[in-house]
Design brief:
This protein is mainly beta. It contains 2 helices and 10 strands; from the N terminus they run ββββββββββαα. Helices cover 11% and strands 36% of the residues. β5 and β6 form a beta hairpin. The radius of gyration is 16 Å and the shape is globular. Bound molecules: dTDP-4-keto-6-deoxyglucose. DTDP-4-keto-6-deoxyglucose binds next to β2, β3 and β4.
Length: 145
């Protein structure tokens, strides 16, 4: 499964670091909303949903967490721990985050305002919708078959 990581340029100097985020430049969409997750308690799993149409760029600006992505056919996992790296999360991607470090601040840029109706919080429902949207992908033979 393709994991889309955006490498962000560090502009820091001897005084410290600085990274700039600009819509439709290093952020590949119009930014309508920014939010951040912090003070996540030990042992907590967050996310556990997909979005119907939301695009997001997720950056661990401090600390680290594990990030699971699932497109309905494949699951991939990575550790976010670099403020110079953004994870692009496309629509119809199930996501789960866990193992947050105590100091973790996960900043998320989104291309839409908050809309609870955009969330799919039931995994079986997500799988059904994902197969209905891309039936050919779920039936496609593996390369070489
Ligand atoms: C996502 C992952 C990475 C708002 O009122 N406005 C907002 O913009 C957001 C994102 C949330 N909320 C409220 C809704 C809940 O009462 O904040 C509370 C916590 O939200 P949620 O349980 O959805 O948080 P996470 O950490 O499970 O998921 C969040 C985002 O919701 C989600 O879009 O991709 O972070």
């Amino acid at each position: 499964m393709n994991i889309n990581l955006v490498q962000l340029q560090r502009h820091g100097d001897e005084r410290g670091g600085l990274i700039a985020l600009e819509e439709n430049k290093n952020v590949p969409f119009n930014v309508k909303r920014v939010y951040y997750l912090f003070d996540t308690k030990s042992g907590v799993r967050r996310g556990l949903h997909a979005h119907r149409s939301l695009r997001q760029l997720v950056i661990a600006v401090r600390g680290s967490c594990h990030f699971v992505l699932d497109n309905g056919q494949q699951r991939a996992e990575l550790i976010l721990n670099d403020p110079a790296q953004g994870l692009l999360v496309e629509p119809m991607m199930w996501r789960e985050m866990y193992d947050f470090s105590e100091d973790c601040v996960l900043m998320v840029l989104a291309d839409q305002l908050y809309d609870p109706a955009d969330y799919i919080r039931d995994y079986d429902g997500f799988l059904q919708l994902s197969r209905a949207r891309a039936p050919e992908a779920s039936l496609a033979p593996e390369a070489g078959e």
